[in-house]
Amino acid sequence: MPGWYNATQDPVQQNQLTHVGLVIEQHPERTQLFMQWKQMNWSFMVDPFNLLNMRFVPCTIAIDEHGIIQAVQPRLDRAEEFIDLFVNQSFDAPQNPPPAQKFVTQAEKPTIQSAQALSDYAVALALWGDETQLNEAITVSQQALAIQEDDRTHFNLGVIYRMRYDSAYRQDDDFSNAIHHWTQALNHDPNNYIWRRRIQQYGPRLDKPYPFYDWIPTAREAIIARGETPHSLSIEPRGAEFAEPMQIFDSQSAQDNPDPDNRIYHDTEPLIDADIVVVPPQIVAGESVRVHITLRPNDEAHWNNEVDDTVLWVNQTEGWQADQAHHTVPNGAGATSDETRQFELELRSLSDLATGQHSITAYSLYYICEDVNGICLYRRQDLTIPIEILSADGRKLKDGG
Amino acid sequence: MTTLLDLQDTRRGDVAFKVGEYFPDIVLPNADDNSAMSLADFHGQKVMLHIFASW
Question: Which of A36, A268, A283, A298 is most exposed, with minimal Cβ within 10 Å?
């Protein structure tokens, strides 16, 4: 997009041309930071649901003064020539214009309980409503899926689950449900690049085409150097969203198991709620997954920050390699805190692994305090990472091949 | 004589939009203030619409 911005500054300044953006991202505010960095002051719409059913991005479309499409994907290498023709050509208004395709985006409760009407209503609630309406959006989207199962409804439901995960109304399984429905969407249409990218954003490095948001630190530095304040992000990208792609799985060995004999008392209550999301949840032997483990103190507990960092250890499991066995998350600010702590790790299955459900075990060690003036404890919590290995034939069936 | 159609990149043909048709009537939130925004707001202007993601 910066290429078009640079190539069209004159006609834009002379009011011969207007740029408009439409951003297909789960977190569109990241694009506001990108635009600030590139000093592109276009208005843009946000479409985390991909309502226009784009199968790839970026896509540039030239639209005349009557709203008619005059070119799709004009060549950037001939931008000057294209813009000169486009701004200087007069386009006649169509005599008998065909009706434009409409997309429902207004939150009106449907009178007809069709899958389409319900799905549209769910999307509208999520797009135009506030966070309190995400519960209803999920319920309505599930009703749509019960009537008709397709890739779009699965994808939309995944987007809404992830929205709730990022909201104050987060529920434990929201992220794993988002991954599940995005995976279902991709199974229905394996050639949809947008469906695939949304999973890859959180997926393993072997399956990443590029680091999605590695530009953010550079952008912030450049914006600050200009004397501006970077656009703030309510949801910071992390882990997989920054990770560099890799071609060969890199497994670090010779790390020390911090509790090999299982002597640390277990957090039996538990005071820490653990949530495990595997992306993707199903693979073929030889492929890898990215595992997101979230630890959150329950209402009666908080982290003790005056001691060691929180640790995650991944047990060696036959048939599997971990990128690292030992992971840490630093303590929060202050003596105590109750923030969410997240680990991300990658596991690769060996190519001769049997099909079926596999479990990789891990455990976390943490310092936790009960209640405000309660006892502080050092505790261990065992964790199980579930991954399903599909046969190559099973994958083909899921991919529609 | 070169036309606009000659200056299109045809390598990726998997696009739902066709030259000569209206761009779909879609209303979406404006990134700045979440207000309703549509291409109809730009009627009378020549528009380059960029559908993209920052990744």
Answer: A268
What parts of chain A have a pLDDT lower than 50? 396-397, 399-401
DSSP state of A331: -
pTM score? 0.82
Q: What confidence score (pLDDT) does residue A400 get?
A: 43
Return the SS3 of A373: coil
Give the span between the Cα atoms of A186 and A198, in whole angstroms: 10
CA-CA-CA-CA torsion sign (A328, A333, A337, A342): negative
HSE-up (13 A, CA, CB side) for residue A223: 20
Among the listed residues A59, A191, A53, the one whose alpha carbon sits nearest the alpha carbon of residue B10: A59
B51 and A24 within 8 Å at the Cβ level: the answer is yes
How many Å lie between the alpha carbon of A212 and the closest alpha carbon of chain B?
5
pLDDT in tens, A225-269: 999 999 999 999 988 888 888 777 766 666 788 888 888 889 988
How far apart, in Å, are the Cα atoms of A13 and each of A7, A193, A219?
A: 12, 35, 25
Contact of B16 with chain A, judged by CB distance below 8 Å, is answered with yes
pLDDT at A360: 95
Closest residue in B to A63 (Cα–Cα)? B47
Compute CA distances A111 → A116, A117, A121, A127, whole Å: 12, 8, 11, 20
What is the CB neighbour count within 10 angstroms for residue A287?
Answer: 21
What is the C-alpha to C-alpha distance for residues A239 and A345, in angstroms, rounded to an integer? 9
**In whole angstroms, what is the distance from residue A50 CA to residue A327 CA?**
36
Say how far apart CA A118 and CA A44 lie, in whole Å: 27
Condensed to tens digits (0 to 9), the pLDDT of residues A43-102 reads 999 999 999 888 888 889 999 999 999 999 898 888 888 999 999 998 888 777 666 666
**Which among A296, A295, A300, A278 is positioned nearest to A287, based on CA atoms?**
A278
Min Cα–Cα distance to chain B from A29, Å: 7
Cα separation, A247 vs A41, in Å, equals 37
CA A130 to chain centre: 20
Looking at chain A from residue 215 to 244, which residues have their Cβ under 8 Å from any Cβ of chain B?
215
CA dist A263 to A42, A266, A270, A317, A376, Å? Answer: 59, 9, 17, 20, 18
